[in-house]
Write a structure and sequence with these properties.
Length: 397
């Protein structure tokens, strides 16, 4: 009989992956995956980019590369982060295979079985899966419209036998709750963190995806605000602003932490795809990121507005949701007695799929929420999809 390790036994299957199998049915309207619609990918720009590369650059792209990343891309991303005032001094930057790998690397280097991690509740499912697979003990902190509830944060820290090894947050356009932390809450959380022997893991893949330029300042990372009194590991990703298939993320963290992460990555995948790093670097160097992200902001804003319009029109009374200022998600709260899994069954039968709340609950139980992602669905189908989900909810009221 095969005998799996304790780490493997701790792994949870991802409800999202299972649902995506349903979501590929051609007639299904999917609000499930937090991913861009294929029509939004910069395919022509990338055709052009590849043709513009020299033979030597193409050869580098086919070769293994340094574990820390393709040096020109490391430089390009450093420049990009510098413009956002992220502190480069005292920190190093490494490229990872998606930011999800950065979360796994950090869990691997920090977590011994039973060590505590304070997370948001609800929390990004990939983060929960990564942490649980290293046998972390999770203490979830409820979110309100401005970020983590700090009284609950104190209680979560006290509930652990030792200070948490990591505090994990996604302050911008949180997945799944769609909220953005207010400036006050960011500063107050930093004050709390100054008194605890811990490391903040700030996950920021949606940083660029604010809908209105006037909200850009709201996205200032905690790593910028903190001025380095606290060890902060800042992760970002090109998945939402170039393409998830590139599998490029990055980690900006104190040098000592990057050193350990590079060691951990060496035996994992040796390096992130050099091919996509060469392309991504050309994307930065040729100034394509800025105009492309601008088109994405407009596209996602439009999609969010259509979804909000649909919710207003079709959702029955007693159902609440947030109005996102950016990102991919609307988090819908159903009356407490409704089980989102039952709603999902009805909704799938009618032709629309979403992710149920308990997938994002660090304890995997609370289930009167649903996550609707507006990023992937063709605009023309969003209203109809919301109508279907709303009809499914109505059956339980
Ligand atoms: C909050 C958050 N972090 C990290 C990731 C992982 O992104 P990737 O590994 O594609 O960079 C995602 C993807 O949905 C996310 O929502």
């Amino acid at each position: 009989m095969v005998k799996f390790s304790a780490n493997a036994r701790a792994m949870r299957s991802s409800a999202i992956r299972e649902l995506l199998n349903v979501a590929v049915r051609p007639d299904m309207i999917s609000f499930a995956g937090g991913m861009p619609n294929p029509s939004l990918f910069p395919i022509e720009q990338v055709d052009e980019l590849y043709r513009s590369l020299t033979l030597e650059q193409k050869q580098v792209g086919f070769q293994y590369g340094p574990t820390g990343g393709y040096p020109p891309l490391v430089e390009s991303i450093k420049n990009y982060l510098k413009k956002k005032n992220l502190p480069l001094e005292g920190n190093d930057l490494m490229i990872t295979t998606g930011s999800l790998q950065a979360l796994n690397l950090l869990a691997k280097i920090f977590i011994d079985p039973g060590d505590g991690i304070v997370t948001e509740d609800p929390c990004f499912i990939g983060g929960v899966s990564a942490f649980v697979s290293f046998q972390a003990r999770l203490a979830g902190v409820p979110l309100d419209a401005d970020g983590m509830d700090l009284d609950a944060f104190d209680r979560a820290v006290e509930s652990l036998p030792h200070p948490p090894k990591l505090v994990y947050i996604t302050p911008n356009f949180q997945n799944p709750a769609g909220i953005i932390y207010s400036r006050e809450r960011r500063l107050a959380l930093l004050d709390r963190l100054r008194c605890i022997d811990t490391v903040l893991l700030e996950d920021d893949p949606y940083n660029e995806l604010y809908f209105d330029a006037s909200d850009k300042d709201l996205t200032t990372p905690l790593k910028v605000l903190a001025q380095e009194e606290i060890p902060i590991c800042y992760t970002g990703s090109l998945s939402k602003i170039f393409g998830p298939g590139m599998r490029i993320g990055f980690l900006l963290a104190p040098k000592q932490i990057i050193g350990k992460c590079e060691l951990a990555k060496q035996s994992m995948d040796a390096c992130t795809s050099t091919f996509t790093q060469v392309l991504a670097n050309a994307f930065f160097e040729q100034g394509m990121l800025k105009p492309y992200v601008e088109t994405l902001r407009q596209a996602y804003k439009r999609r969010a507005e259509i979804m909000l319009g649909g919710l207003k029109e079709h959702m029955p009374k007693g159902v609440k949701w947030n109005t996102p200022k950016g990102g991919f998600y609307i988090w819908v709260e159903l009356p407490q007695h409704i089980d989102a899994s039952q709603v999902l069954k009805v909704s799938v039968a009618k032709g629309a799929v979403f992710v149920v709340g308990k997938a994002f609950d660090p304890q995997g139980t609370r289930n009167n929420f649903i996550r609707l992602s507006f990023s992937h669905t063709p605009e023309s189908k969003i209203s109809r999809g919301v109508e279907i989900v709303s009809q499914a909810v109505s059956e339980f009221l």
